[in-house]
Design a protein that fits this description.
402 residues, alpha+beta, six-stranded mixed beta sheet, six-stranded antiparallel β-barrel, 27% helix, disordered C terminus
């Protein structure tokens, strides 16, 4: 056989050499990569707020019920037939405004009879006075005995007393005639009439005709637990809480649909004793109600401002967590390392917790990104924005370590 290589065999050998060279190159590259260390894991990003101590109003959220400041029953004080109603049901009326008319004819007749009796009594008194005066003039001449004079003067005194009695009867009849026009005893809103026209009223008892309620201003009645009152007074002794004077305590209402009522009131009354059945102290607020939006009997939310915390920190609700030991927050400490701090919370102030203990000024409290933050872990801190958004790491200013 000839040992000369053909062009085809030369080409096949060249392809085998190139394939082997490529495989060696890939193997060498793989060995180089396996020798390099894996890239470090990225640090978690968290959004923080900076703690700032400040005076904070101390409030309590309670439940109250509205009631009219004044309530007056309108009753028929004179007996008779109800002729007509003179007001519109559910409207506002003024004090002294006539609301109902009772048939005045029998009462007018009674007054006329009393006036006639008064005239008769006055005539009798005049005659008795003239007779007694004549006897007094004649007693010195002996023409009238002492006994006749005594009888004349007694008749004079009796007829004078009868005049006074008749005058009192006239006054009574005139008052009863005035009761035929039933007037509003106070200004307020008159409710539905309780008796219709044609009914006999005031016969034996004073018949209820309607009710007038004064609802501007209006009362809100609510209770505060006695243990809470005691705790506030103890806290005042520490010096960090200043309780407001009773007459200056602000009362803000929240309506049943959750909307805040636009006008604030003041605390009007605080009971001096504790209800043994509920263990609470009865309170009452006075609320302006010029638009008559608030109605007696409504249940409302009550926010009572009881004082001021001299030094407290406000943090968003999401920053405060709880476990078996109580509430705590996570803060970004020195070297951007997460640290857990136990705190003491007062209550909510809108969307924020009031922190009374556990935080210092300039603490960076983690609000969002808590899932990736654990004590001892290094994080990247960016400012927290309202609405739960965080600033971009690329655009946020660097936060120095503490």
């Amino acid at each position: 056989m000839s040992s000369r290589r053909t062009p085809t065999s030369i080409a096949c050998a060249a392809v085998r050499d190139l394939t082997l060279l490529g495989a060696l190159s890939l193997l060498a590259a793989g060995c180089g990569q396996s020798a390099q260390a894996p890239p470090p894991a990225p640090t978690a990003q968290v959004a923080v707020v900076t703690a700032r101590s400040q005076p904070v109003p101390l409030t309590r959220d309670l439940v109250g019920r509205l009631s009219a400041t004044r309530v007056a029953d309108v009753r028929a004080r004179a007996a008779g037939v109800l002729l007509k109603r003179l007001y519109k049901e559910g409207s506002d009326v003024q004090q002294g405004q006539v609301l109902f008319q009772i048939d005045p004819a029998p009462l007018q007749a009674a007054l006329s009879g009393a006036l006639a009796a008064l005239a008769q009594a006055q005539a009798n008194a005049t005659n008795a006075h003239v007779s007694a005066q004549r006897d007094r003039e004649l007693i010195a001449s002996g023409l009238v005995s002492r006994s006749d004079l005594d009888n004349a003067e007694a008749a004079e005194r009796s007829t004078a007393a009868a005049v006074l009695q008749a005058q009192a009867n006239v006054d009574t009849a005139r008052i009863n005639l005035g009761y035929a026009k039933v007037a509003a005893p106070i200004a307020g809103r008159a409710s539905q009439q309780a008796v219709t026209e044609g009914a006999l009223v005031g016969q034996g008892t004073a018949t209820l005709l309607t009710t007038v309620e004064q609802i501007d201003p209006i009362y809100v009645n609510f209770d505060q637990p006695a243990i809470e009152v005691e705790r506030l007074h103890r806290a005042q002794a520490t010096g960090n809480i200043t309780l407001v004077d009773r007459n200056k305590a602000a009362v803000q209402l929240t309506l049943a649909d959750g909307a805040p009522y636009g006008r604030a009131g003041t605390l009007d009354f605080r009971d001096a004793s504790v209800d043994p059945a509920t263990g609470a102290v009865a309170l009452r607020g006075l609320i302006p109600n010029p638009d008559r939006q608030l109605l007696p009997g409504m249940y409302v939310g009550v926010r009572l401002t009881v004082g001021t915390l001299k030094r407290a920190v406000l943090v968003p609700q999401a920053a405060v967590q709880r476990d078996g030991a109580g509430p705590y927050v996570l803060v970004v400490g020195s070297g951007d390392v997460v640290v857990q701090k136990r705190v003491a919370t007062e209550n909510l102030s809108g969307p924020e917790w009031i922190i009374t203990e556990g935080l210092a000024d300039d603490d960076r409290v983690i609000v969002s990104g808590i899932q990736g933050a654990r004590p001892g872990v290094r994080v990247t801190a960016v400012p927290y924005r309202a609405g739960g958004e965080t600033a971009s790491v690329a655009t946020a200013a660097p936060t120095p370590g503490r």
